[in-house]
C-alpha cells in the first residue's frame, strides 16, 4: 500500500513553501536532479532520444565543472537546465549568504553552456529550503521548482516495479515528476524510465520541459 504524503505532498504541506511551483497547469514535466555524470546521464539522454521526449535537468555545478561536455549534450538535445546549487548544499544548514554564493557559482557555469533566455529555474537539494533563501532566490529572478510526484528512485529498498507503481498511481495533469541522475538511483531509474514514459504517452499525457 502506498502512503500518499511520501510521494505526493498534500496541499496543506505545500503551503509551508508558499511561492514555490509544485505543479503546472497541463502536461507532465519529467525532471532529473543531481547530474550530470558520465555513468548515468548519457543513458538517460539515449532513452529520451529514443522516446522523442524532453526533460528538465537540475544540475549540480561541481558536476558541470567536471563534465561540461555532458551539459553541452543536454542543451544541444533540446532539454531544459535548472540550478541545483554548486555543492548540493542543504538549505536548512546553510546561511542565506553562503547559499546564494553557491547558487551563483552554479549559475555561472550553466550560462557558459546555455544561452537560452527563459526565467531561471532552481530546485533546492533534498527539497528543503529556508523561507529567507526562497525570498532571496525569487528576488534574484528564479522560479523555485519542487514536485508533484517524488519517485524515491534513490531508495535502495524500492524496486523498479514499485517506482512504476508510484508514477502510475500519482501522475495527474500538470505533475512535475522527480527522478535522479545519480549512481545511487541508476539501476532502478534506468530500468523504469522507458516504462513510465510509455505509460504517460499511452494515457494521453504530453511531456514538456519546465
How would you describe what is shown here?
- Helix 8 links the parallel strand 6 (149-150) and strand 7 (176-180).
- It is globular and about 45 Å long.
- Helix 3 (41-51) runs parallel beside helix 9 (186-202) and helix 8 runs parallel beside helix 9 (186-202).
- The strands form two sheets. Strands 1, 2, 3, 6, 7 and 8 form a six-stranded parallel beta sheet that branches. A two-stranded parallel sheet has the order 4-5.
- The protein has helices at residues 4-7, 11-14, 41-51, 61-66, 68-76, 96-113, 131-140, 160-170, 186-202, and strands at 28-33, 56-59, 80-83, 121-122, 143-144, 149-150, 176-180, 207-208.
- With 210 residues, it is of the alpha/beta class.
- It has a single domain, classed as TIM Barrel, CATH 3.20.20.370.
The overall pLDDT, averaged over residues, is 93
Provide a count of the helices: 9
What's the main sheet like? 6 strands, parallel
Count of structural domains: 1
The name of the CATH superfamily reads: Glycoside hydrolase/deacetylase
CATH arch. level architecture: Alpha-Beta Barrel
Q: From the alpha-carbon coordinates, what is the Rg to the nearest angstrom?
A: 16 Å
Count of extended strands: 8
Distance between the termini: 31 Å
State the CATH topology. TIM Barrel
What overall geometry do the principal axes of the alpha carbons give?
Answer: globular
Strand content: 5-15%
CATH first level: Alpha Beta
Q: Uncertain regions: pLDDT < 50 for 5+ in a row? A: none
- The string of secondary-structure elements, in order, is HHEHEHHEHEHEEHEHE
**Quaternary structure:** single chain
- Helix vs. strand class: alpha/beta
Question: Can you give the helix content as a percent range?
Answer: 40-55%
